[in-house]
């Protein structure tokens, strides 16, 4: 059966003359710091009210305020957006918010907890099919009641994630994190072999990519696509090598799965043969 399109998610935006509950909560807790972005701001009610209170805040919404932000932010808020999106769309929002967040910054996601039935239903005003789903995130929960939950997010390399000594579970703060989702993150390699050399790393601590659940494998490759877009924009490479080392016989040194995205540039190869077929020196 053909999957129904989720083309009316913007219709769930609500006009208000007062701050939303999560915005008021963050204001009361003094958590709205520095330069702020409201990602998926709908009609922009919170943006308007917080500006009146003196906050430096920008609103972005792909339907109502489509001008994409061109800088990074100390605080990002994303309220009741994920509940109206399909899984892949949710992951893209997480990756975009992570990318727009300054190192050391905080993002806050509000999700609904009062949804009784997932799926499409006819909007009571617009009479269009709108989608709602239950969302749970692996981030710090800072507020929870029967109607909503509020999560706090910080970049993966700005917190302690594990008590083990794996540097992929606890990556260095000094490395630049490109983007992150619920189950994976992308970070510049600490010992790059080309300009822009990036690792996509699953958060689950397994040595082999093949040990990952299929859903987490898929999330890694979705992130590979995102990283490729970011690297093309920033470095303008002429090509890419994408691959992984699995087990020591294949050159794996850190026993935590990862995928290498290596930008290639004209003139960086020696001889006619290069790329994946050049991986075993004796077979060159």
TrEMBL record:
Taxonomic superkingdom? Bacteria
Task: Return the InterPro entries for the record.
Answer: AP-4-A_phosphorylase, HIT-like, HIT-like_sf, SAM-dependent_MTases_sf
What region holds the HIT domain?
A: 164-271
For molecular function, the Gene Ontology terms on record are: catalytic activity
Q: Which Pfam families does the UniProt record give? A: HIT, Methyltransf_23
Q: What is this protein called?
A: HIT domain-containing protein
Q: Which organism is it from?
A: Nostoc edaphicum CCNP1411
